[in-house]
Each structure stands twice: as structure tokens, then as C-alpha cells.
Amino acid sequence: MTRPVPARPRSQDRPGPPDARLGARSLRLSYGERVVVHDLDLDVLDNTVTAVIGPNGCGKSTLLRALGRLLTPAEGTVLLDGKRIDRLPTREVARVLGILPQSPTAPDGLTVADLVARGRHPHQSWYRQWSSADEEAVADALRMTGMERLADRALDELSGGQRQRAWISMALAQGTELLLLDEPTTYLDLAHQIDVLDLVERLHTTRGRTVVMVLHDLNLAARYARRLVAMRGGEVVAEGEPAEVLTEDLLFHVFGLDARVIEDPVSGTPLVVPVGARHRTTV
Predict the structure, then answer these.
(1) 34/15 Cα distance (integer angstroms)
(2) The domain that contains 179 carries what CATH number?
(3) What tens digit of pLDDT does each residue of 100-137 get?
(4) Where are the beta strands (DSSP E) in 74-214?
(5) 34-45 sheet: strands from edge to edge
(6) SS3 content of the chain, % helix, strand, coil (to 5)
(7) pTM for this one?
């Protein structure tokens, strides 16, 4: 069953379920006077791929930035392993939580290997310099993403899909158990979207990564995520397994979309088929 937003927010100090490592309590997010997210509660379940879906401007990316400590809440708090994330040392957070924002940028001429090596910075200090463990982590990240042969290439020489894999390599080299990916398939053609999402799935199934990603494509979200969080107007309006969330009523309520939901013949997950004006009278 889809879950409506609670009428009353939970206490900011209330712990989430035991299998939730990251969560939000009574979260209110804004840019200046413009409030984007209202009194939001959310728990990110451990060892799960979660996709956040919703129309443009509903607060998906803003929520992810707050979960990754890139945005300070106006009210409420984000909890990491039961502790307020804003009170934890930056390096401690960076060893546990990695975030890949939309359209990340890097200095001109930076190579793939140099970019991926930056993922090891949270593990460096004045008494712990670059080590064989760091070297191994970078090499492993490049192997995992299939980027070894491109390690010496400059990022600006790569295709969109290759660049995205390079940035994911950096996040992987960071060695975090939690990954936040903000629209990792944006600007990619369908083949490269599948390539990136297949990689995310491998990170989850073979490395045990907990992943939260913002996605626009509902059918890809349903296929690759075990859990969906649907947002509208800065609030969570439903969360659960894809078959529970992607109902025809919810699609109309959240997206204003007249659609039919059938079974994907390949994955068995929900498949959203928009009706459109041309066919509305005959369906």
C-alpha cells in the first residue's frame, strides 16, 4: 500500500527502523525565502537501492543534497547511523557517505586516474599519506567500472557515459557504504543509461552498497530500485516497493499523468504506459 505523508512530523530525535542508516526528521529545506521541502520524514533502508521519483521542482535533488550534507536544513535534521550528521566530523561522514551531484565539474585536463584518486582524500591525513591500500582502492574502482584502459585520458575527452562512469569510480574509490546519486543518467542516451544503472546494480549486489538515486525515468526506477520514494510539492506522498508505489492513481496524483501500469515483460516490474490525448478516448 502507498503511504501518505504523516499528518504530524516525528520527533527529530526519534530513531528510525534498525535497518535504516540514513534518515531525515521533520526536514524543512529552503533557498532563501522559498521553501522547497516541508516537514519531511524519511528512512533509507540499509543494503537497498532506493529511487526518489517525482515531477520537476518537487524537491528530489534538494532532499538528496541535504542527506549528503551539502545543504543545511532550515529546520529538522538528518541522521547518519542514529547521529545528527551536522555534528559529525566531515572526514568521518565522507568515509561512510558519498554523493555524486548533478553535472559535477572538474578542472580542465584532469585525468580519470587523478579524479578517482580524489576519492581517497577522506582517508588521508598529515600522518597517513598515500598508501598501497589507496592505490589498490583506485585500481579496484577502475576495474569495477571498466575504466582501466581510460585511466590516463582527460575527462573532457570522454563521452557522456564514460564521464559518468569515471565520477562513479571516484565515489566507489571513496570506499563508502552509502552512495547518493543525483540523476546519474541525465543527458545520456538509453544505452548509456542502462550501462550506468547496470553498474549501480553491480555495486549493490556484489559490493553491498546502499544506494539512493534520483531518477526521472519511472520504468528504469522500477526496474533497478527495490524501493521507491515518490515526492510531490516537497513532501513524500508514497514509499515502498515499485509495485506498491507505481499505481495509476498515484501517477495521476503526483505527475498529472493518465497512464496504464502493466507488467514489464523482461523484469516483471511495473511498466508505465502513458495514454496521451490521441488514445484517451479509445483506451
Answers:
(1) 29
(2) 3.40.50.300
(3) 888 788 888 899 999 999 888 776 555 556 678 888 88
(4) 75-80, 83-84, 97-100, 178-182, 210-214
(5) 34-45, 20-31, 75-80, 83-84
(6) 35, 25, 40
(7) 0.84
Residue 191, burial from CB neighbour count under 10 angstroms (0-12, 13-18, 19+): exposed
The one-letter code for the residue type at 252 is F
| pLDDT of 5 over the 80 cut | no
pLDDT tens for each residue of 59-106: 999 999 999 999 999 999 999 998 999 999 988 898 889 888 887 888
> Hey, what amino acid is at 236?
V
- Buried/exposed code over 38-76 (b: 16+ C-beta within 10 A; e: otherwise): bbbbbbbbbebbbbbbbeeebbbbbbbbbbbbebebebb
Query: Residues 170, 119: contact at Cβ < 8 Å?
Result: yes
Question: Based on the structure, what is the number of domains in the chain?
Answer: 1
Q: Is residue 1 part of a domain?
A: no
pLDDT digits (tens, 9 = 90+) for 206-251: 888 899 999 999 999 999 999 999 999 999 999 999 999 999 999 9
At 177, the amino acid letter reads E
- 152 assigned to some structural domain: yes
Letter string b/e over residues 86-112, b meaning 16 or more CB atoms within 10 A of that residue's CB = eebeeeebbebbbbbbeebebeeeebb
Range of the domain at 29: 20-274
